[in-house]
Amino acid sequence: MTATNSTRLRTAALWAGPVGVAVSAVGIFGSALLAPWFSWTGNALSDLGAVGEPTAPLFDGALVLAGLLGLAFLGRVWFAAANAVHRLGAVIMAVAFASMGLVGVFPLPHDLHGPVAVTFFLAFTYGLFVHGSGDALAGAVREGLLSVWLGIAHVTGWLVFAVAPIEGIALPELVGSAALSAWVLVTFRTLRSRR
Prior knowledge:
6 helices, mainly alpha
């Protein structure tokens, strides 16, 4: 591979991050707008992708594509890692993005839907903590703290849900998706500034 092709590949992998964020946002909010029955306080986001729902192709397709784009982005994150903790964080995040794609591959009511959805939320939360720790160890304390606090925000969303008088889990899921998206965008900006 020539140096020019290698540079193009790294650039494409870098831009896969924000493109994946946009794709997932279109999938979530586009599906919610097209589903008049959907309630942010009464449903789960995955209800939008359930087998037989008119919004399923948009929602599930967006998750699969965003998961693949996220994996490409994490390849760039891996090669930019400053230490072993960074690399471990990238691996955990790769598990999260693979699980995101599998949520779309195994929509409700598939037996594997629950396990891959739980893996997605758990993996990216741990990934935020671990990658943020790698940032701090590399001297990028502000970026590290931001990652850790995004993880805390996600956990807090679920804690609030546990005591709130709502039935659906769409809102804490949305908080988690927003936290992951913010991490991708901040990491993209950081990596881009190093070029």
